[in-house]
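Each record in this resource describes a single protein on a pair of labelled lines. An example record follows, reproduced without changes.
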Amino acid sequence: MFILSWLLLTEIATTKVLVLIASPLLAASFIFGDTCKAMFEGIILAFIKHPFDVGDLCVIDETEMEVKQINILTTTFLRLDTKRNALYPNSVLAAKAIINLKFKPDLNDTIELSLDFSTQKACIDDLETKIKNYINKSEKFEGFGHVMAKHIGNNIKIVVHFQHIMSTLDATHSQCREKKNKQRSEFLFQIKHYLDELKIKTV
């Protein structure tokens, strides 16, 4: 603007020439202004505010999402409720409240079994012993196994509390969740083997 005013005052350029010069500049400012603003806000968010890293678990608009990819203009999240990716402009994120849970995976787990009421106490004791021994000897679970049996209506409920062992270093929320589910499935198959071996019926 200063240069255009100087050209006009010094009569180097006429008003018509300045209009011809200014018109495309004005149009360009409308076209590229928002892009430059978005890029600037994206750089501020990604490199200065830096509210999250790839793999972090965040809450945005009351929705839990895992950070999958961070770019200058956009950030890609994985929504935990729909299991689908969500693309957010960084300029929009800059104005939102972001809660970073910093991905601390819950490695505790529980398995519940409902046994037939006619199951003998000796069989239940044997089942508890086998499960505890499996947990204590396994390299995939912590060395403590809490097994609790109680009567619920006409059934006997067995509750097994245990903790997974896994490396969370450089692992994303999704990777830890998948590994935890895999180990849980292996545990369930082992318990089924014990139930068949002891001829215990589940309901």
The longest strand covers residues 108-116. The mean pLDDT is 78. Residues 15-49 form the longest helix (35 residues).
